[in-house]
Amino acid sequence: MRTSSTILLFLGLVATAAGQTLDQEGDMNQFLLNRMNAQPQGKSAGLDPKRIINKSSSFLKEREPEMNAEEYALYQRVVEMFETNAPLAVKLLEAMMGNKEPPSPAFEFILGNAYYNAGQVEQAEASYRSAVKRYPEFVRGWNNLGVLCYTAGRYADAVPCFSKAVTLGDRDPMTFGLLGSCLEREEDNVAAELAFMQALGGDPGNTEWKEGLLRICLQQKQYARAESLVKKLVKDHPKETRYWLVYANILLSENRKLDATLVLETAAGTGVADADELAVLGDLYADQKFGAEALRTYQRLLAVAPETGERRLLTLAGLQTDAGKFKEAKETLDRLEPKIAPARRVELLSARADWFVAQKQWPAARTQLEALLQVAPFNGRALLSLGRAHVAEGDPVHAQFAFEAATRVDEVKYAANLELANLELKNRHYGRSVEYLQQALRIERSDAVEDYLTRVKSLAADEPRSNP
Questions:
Q1: How confident is the model at residue 264, as a pLDDT?
Q2: Helices 345-358 & 380-392, crossing angle to 10 degrees?
Q3: CA 269 to chain centre
Q4: Cα–Cα distance between 354 and 440 in angstroms, integer?
Q5: What is the pLDDT of residue 28?
Q6: Whole-number pLDDT of residue 411
Q7: Which residues contact 390 (CB under 8 A, 6 or more apart)?
Q8: Could you give phi then psi for residue 278, rounded to 5 degrees?
């Protein structure tokens, strides 16, 4: 009913929150990146655009454009309004724009700040662009323009703004970090790596920039560097669950299963582990043949993620059955049964049937399969197993009924036709065996079945003489 090849366990791979197992390195990397890239588009945990823009309202002498006396007088009156009454500040500043003389780039910049505080982002961008066009060395004009583009998710537009600010002498770690984030999203990993390193040079404790550099290392499969970064993140933020799972998966990428197990044991022991971590830890135990530990971990998983826990326990029972550990498999199924959801009742009945079949307890297996088919009458695998149980009990008539029913289920139609061909061959009904083999070959071509058909045809040719 189920072969061990259909059981997917954690063989140096990674389990998702939904309980799926990923079997390609690219999938694993993407999973890790998804775990690390938790910020929504255009957002940054350390970014407060309004704070940056308001902070920029004080000018740097001898490095940026200056206002004329009239502009400066008005600026002093309204700057305190930016956070308390931005719309009024905008009106007062716009009144100055009605003068015949064009305002200074510095005044346009301040107007942009006022627009931003008033929620008029498009007007703010237009003011910043005019200011930097007229005064190309306006550092904070470029920086504020970059912040606007970044928060709007326009990373390609933000890159040249932050780059220009850096070129003009901006050494704020936030500028480097935001530049790195934009470059990463534009898939310029080499430049992004350099920017994140510059950001960390000025702000070595910044978690966001460490995460950015970690993502770059994962994309480039630099697992040694990634491990160093995530170890520091785990040390600094031991309650941050996702770091533990990323740490374990980096170790698994290097096939260091025991180390990964120890990491997740620590997370589970300190109460940090959530469903993802428990699922992976249980899979690692099962893969390393630690059945008792796997069972205990999956039971914990069952409490926090019932669906995933049920699936894992059923998988564990199947592996124990395949390995001939029938006592352990029965214990796993017995512990699962009282809590299993109705939607998984069929899978539980199927696992119990497998348990009986593996021990060749045919009457008990048949009883279990019949109970399963009362709940799910079109379960193809159960019909196949029931037919095989009847064959083992020497009841070809009921076996044929079961196999014929299985031919009406697409997923097992091929196997059912082969079973019927074998049954007819044993009964020396060679012509009917040929028909079933031909039906199977219409579904799936196979050299082995073609050879089998040729031999049975030769027997069928003699059937009239041998069976007068």
A1: 94
A2: 20
A3: 24
A4: 25
A5: 45
A6: 92
A7: 366, 396, 398, 399, 402
A8: -65, -40
pLDDT, residue 99, reads 61
pLDDT at 23: 37
Q: Which residues of the chain have pLDDT under 70?
A: 1-63, 67-77, 80, 82, 84, 96-100, 462-468
Please report, in angstroms and rounded to a whole number, the separation of the first and last CA atoms in the chain.
39
List Cβ neighbours of 284 (8 Å cut-off, separation of 6 or more).
Answer: 10, 257, 260, 261, 264
147-182 pLDDT per residue, tens? 999 999 999 999 999 999 999 999 999 999 999 999
- The helix (run of H) or strand (run of E) holding residue 103 is none
Task: Please state, in angstroms and rounded to a whole number, the distance separating the CA atoms of residues 324 and 468.
Answer: 48
H/E stretch holding 222 reads none
Q: What is the pLDDT of residues 383-408, one digit of tens each?
A: 999 999 999 999 999 999 999 999 99
Structure tokens at 412: 């097992």
CA angle 456, 462, 464 (to 5 degrees): 120
Give every CB contact of residue 220 below 8 A, 6+ residues apart in sequence.
189
| Rounded Cα distance, 212 and 180, in Å | 8
Assess contact for 449 and 437: CB atoms under 8 A: yes
H-assigned helices in 48-188: 49-55, 69-78, 81-84, 86-97, 105-117, 121-134, 139-151, 155-167, 173-185
Indicate the residue type of 107. Answer: F
Map tokens 């990373």 to a residue: 155
Q: Note the pLDDT of residue 323.
A: 85
Determine the longest span between alpha carbons in the chain, in angstroms.
121
3-state secondary structure of 333: helix
